[in-house]
Amino acid sequence: VLGAGTTFRLRLPLTLAIIDGMVVRVGSARYVVPTPCIEHAFRAAASDLHRLLGRGECVRARGATLPVHRLKTLFGQRDGVDDVLGGILVVVEVDGERACLLVDEIVGQQQVVIKSLGVPRERAQGLAGGAIMTDGRVALILDVATLLACAREPLEACAP
Amino acid sequence: VSSAQQPRVGAAAMTPFAPGKYLAFRLASEEYGIAILRVREIIGMVDVTPLPRTPDHVCGVINLRGRIVPVVDLRVRFGMTATARTAETCIVVVDVGRGEDATARVGCIVDAVSEVLAIGAEQFEPTPRCVASGDVVTGLATCKDRVLILLDVDRVVGELDPAALDQGR
């Protein structure tokens, strides 16, 4: 019939958003880093690491000098590798900004369903949500953009 | 006894608490009560994933049948020392938010859940003067020989209600 038709609108709940993530471990915690943010990961050599007068560290990776952020420090975690040379550096890129995140190890790549953490976003800075892992526990999904913004500021500025 | 109860009835009329059923639970040596209608369920302790950059009393999040729910340690929330979890430690999952779409859920870690008590109007005690209005404590109730400290769920964990912040409350 000319001029007549049917419109189908399919609305997917937000909880069905699936992302491809890299699961990393820091101490006893697991985090999911969205794969599109990751450039590569590597283990740093002592000669590539430069300490900036107690204001942080930089590492040379593939010709670029990148700031190093310890995920455990950003998240105030007590356990986890502290020595940059003893962990894995994950190079993340978002909006043209690049940085290295120090993690203990990379667990693997997996698709996860993003779920709301149930707390106001202001209370969960640097996090995009949570994912329920195969063992039933919750792993936190990083929001790399706000995480790097937090890393630039002194820690108090981002504290709730 | 009846003469002693006379002033109580008047005080009860002023408290925001309606007679009804309250869930009694224990924290340290005191017993507390919250309106049973706000309680969604009571579960045993499960693995809690810590949530970074949150106040100390926010323990983290748990997986409640596929839904992620934040959990608050009420001991820490009320300034008591945290203790080791026991077999009696449990999580009381409550609904928060005052709106019609009060769907935010928060788990509260308590030392032990005792029972559900029906509290009549005559059992409410006058709110002590040391309790400011707007406090988490909204009143007291006596049940047999026990004193129940009644709590306002929204004020205890309302800061974790996503809608609360949107409204700038």
Q: What general form of chain A does the structure show? A: elongated
Helix residue percentage of chain A: 10-25%
The helix fraction of chain B, in percent, is 10-25%
Strand neighbour order, sheet with most strands of chain A: 3-7-8-6-5-4
Q: What amount of the residues of chain A lies in strands?
A: 35-45%
Distance between the termini of chain B: 43 Å
Which percent range describes the beta-strand content of chain B? Answer: 35-45%
Q: Assign the structural class of chain A, choosing from mainly alpha, mainly beta, alpha/beta, alpha+beta, or little secondary structure.
A: mainly beta
The largest sheet of chain B has its strands arranged as 8-1-2-11-10-9
Q: Which features does this protein show?
A:
heterodimer; A: 160 residues; mainly beta; six-stranded mixed β-sheet; B: 169 residues; alpha+beta; five-stranded mixed β-sheet; 11 strands; 16% helix
Can you describe this structure?
The complex is a heterodimer of chains A (about 160) and B (about 170). Chain A is mainly beta. Chain A has three helices and eleven strands, in the order ββββββαβββββαα. Chain A is about 10% helix and about 45% strand. Chain A has a six-stranded mixed beta sheet with strand order 3-7-8-6-5-4. A five-stranded mixed beta sheet of chain A has the order 9-1-2-11-10. The longest helix of chain A has 9 residues, at about 145-150. The termini of chain A are far apart. Residues about 155-160 of chain A have low confidence and may be disordered. Helix content of chain B is about 15%, strand content about 40%. In chain B, a hairpin with a 2-residue loop joins strand 1 and strand 2.
Brief digest:
With about 160 residues, chain A is mainly beta. Chain A has helices at about 70-75, 145-150, 155-160; strands at about 20-25, 30-35, 40, 50, 55-60, 65-70, 90-95, 95-105, 105-115, 125-130, 140. Chain A contains three helices and eleven strands, in the order E-E-E-E-E-E-H-E-E-E-E-E-H-H.
